[in-house]
Amino acid sequence: xxxxxxxxxxxxxxxxxxxxxxxxxxxxxxxxxxxxxxxxxxxxxxxxxxxxxxxxxxxxxxxxxxxxxxxxxxxxxxxxxxxxxxxxxxxxxxxxxxxxxxxxxxxxxxxxxxxxxxxxxxxxxxxxxxxxxxxxxxxxxxxxxxxxxxxxxxxxxxxxxxxxxxxxxxxxxxxxxxxxxxxxxxxxxxxxxxxxxxxxxxxxxxxxxxxxxxxxxxxxxxxxxxxxxxxxxxxxxxxxxxxxxxxxxxxxxxxxxxxxxxxxxxxxxxxxxxxxxxxxxxxxxxxxxxxxxxxxxxxxxxxxxxxxxxxxxxxxxxxxxxxxxxxxxxxxxxxxxxxxxxxxxxxxxxxxxxxxxxxxxxxxxxxxxxxxxxxxxxxxxxxxxxxxxxxxxxxxxxxxxxxxxxxxxxxxxxxxxxxxxxxxxxxxxxxxxxxxxxxxxxxxxxxxxxxxxxxxxxxxxxxxxxxxxxxxxxxxxxxxxxxxxxxxxxxxxxxxxxxxxxxxxxxxxxxxxxxxxxxxxxxxxxxxxxxxxxxxxxxxxxxxxx
Length: 546
Prior knowledge:
Helices cover about 25% and strands about 20% of the residues. The protein has eleven helices and 19 strands. The chain has helices at about 85-100, 135-140, 145-165, 225, 235-250, 260-270, 280-290, 300-310, 360-385, 395-400, 435-440; strands at about 5-10, 15, 30-35, 45, 50-55, 60-65, 70-80, 110-115, 120-125, 130-135, 180, 190, 465-470, 475-480, 480-485, 490-495, 500-505, 510-515, 520-525. Helix 3 packs antiparallel against helix 5, helix 5 (about 235-250) packs across helix 7 and helix 7 runs antiparallel to helix 8 (about 300-310). The chain starts with a strand and ends in a 20-residue tail after the last strand. A six-stranded antiparallel beta sheet has the order 4-5-6-7-9-8, covered by helices on one side. A four-stranded antiparallel beta sheet has the order 15-14-17-18, with no helix packed on it. The radius of gyration is 39 Å and the shape is globular. A hairpin with a 2-residue loop joins strand 14 and strand 15. By secondary structure, it is α+β, with helices and mostly antiparallel strands.
């Protein structure tokens, strides 16, 4: 970034060059304005020299700096000076920075150093990444194929698992905090950055402007953090669920131009179902990740990763080629071998010597089909009686090649056909059929017993039971009907029309669940405490500051 400097007249609001000292129009002394960064070129704690500013935000600025000890470029985040006045915040930042420096994983950014500048500003040195954020990639792609979205989410799970095992919660997981590396290219190798260190001091300025506000970004914020509760590993998994929904559907599950309204949607509204081609197991997993109560989500990022990979095994998008039509792995294509039987694996003929090159395919296939046709024609000829010989003398029979039998027709003794390659003959009679048995002099087996008649499946019950439980107990209502305090059982006729059950309790936000009476089911709901303070005019109550 090139620094700009100009002189500004407070009277006529005109701007002039940096060397001008008085306004040529009214003689007013000019004010010198500059966006030059005083930290450019500065030495930080005798360990780093700042070379360029990469960006800035509500927390501070990020620079490219040179680490003296190893002469390498690093990313140096320098916090605003005001944070050095928060004694508790500084202690928390140092504690979490020390923990983050212990996280070592290919999918997490490495924390190299942390401390204070000579002026008292906090800084954090990290490896310098070159690439694009998931936010930028999503903006270009719209949405991802299922396999790519799962591959990305699995890597994020690996990063979260490594941090959670060190008791570090990200608290602000979102696409702009996921970076695709330039190397290796076209591999979707990513790193998760910004593991909650800056959020120890302040919330994300892009969401809320109050320095004491809850941290996180509204579009990805878990309900429990909106309610002012402490974040857990399940909080990060909720944010991952929002990101996974966005990667698959190309849109967020909740959207509103108002940050406050968006936060309330996370707390109160059920997430929409994924309406894109997707494995059912993956849809179910996304729904679990977006559960309102933390305890209803998977217990760890490692479990989510395994569920992600399992959900796409054997699944193919509707427009892709089914796996059954492709050659199995490490198996040569049957059409390239020359020797193959219809419906069977290639088989070498008995006594055949190995050949250095495969035999031509079509001549052998034509010979096999011709042999099948000849056998079928001979069987039909015998069945209709065409093989009966007329009554003739022994001499005529001998000249004709017939075997004379007194008073009985002689069987045709046709030349044996040339041996053919092994064939699967679906139309030929099996050796144990009655006709075949009579030809070889063995008794025919008894006819097979008739198959038992198919039985109709039992009809489903006409009514189902919906059980609603909540923690803590609450009053349940269905429309205008009061069902009583949970747990309650509601018996309804089986159907596909959903019913809305509303749960209310003093001091807690109301919850509504839509249930479809298609089968017996139990629904457990965890109510969220009402915020301590509500903005003026709010009917349900909502809290932004802790």
